[in-house]
């Protein structure tokens, strides 16, 4: 288990959901697994901006939180597939609603995100 810099705060449902779904690619991984992309290489092709290592870490966390299950086939080369659990399936409507909200507000969100200044952390640390 990794050491945490900030102690867990699990006082409400939003805290709990944030702890389980925190991670840039987790909602997309769940969505793509639901669509039938079950192999790590398929998921990597669907999310090319994510490194294989990051995807593996986030898949492991989703598995630890019982949202997905991992099946390892005893073949050469090894074959792995991920499936949503019943618990993970229950999140799909929520993820769909978030995606619809994003689609509905795409133009506004895109302009707000693109207007955000890029902060150079090194410059902040020098001051």
UniProtKB/TrEMBL annotation:
Keywords: DNA-binding, Transcription, Transcription regulation
GO molecular function: DNA binding
PROSITE patterns noted in UniProt: HTH_HXLR (PS51118)
Gene3D superfamilies (UniProt xref): Winged helix-like DNA-binding domain superfamily/Winged helix DNA-binding domain
Highest taxon listed in the record's lineage: Bacteria
Domain annotation HTH hxlR-type: ranges: 12-110
InterPro entries listed in its UniProt record: HTH_HxlR, WH-like_DNA-bd_sf, WH_DNA-bd_sf
Name under which the protein is recorded: Transcriptional regulator, HxlR family
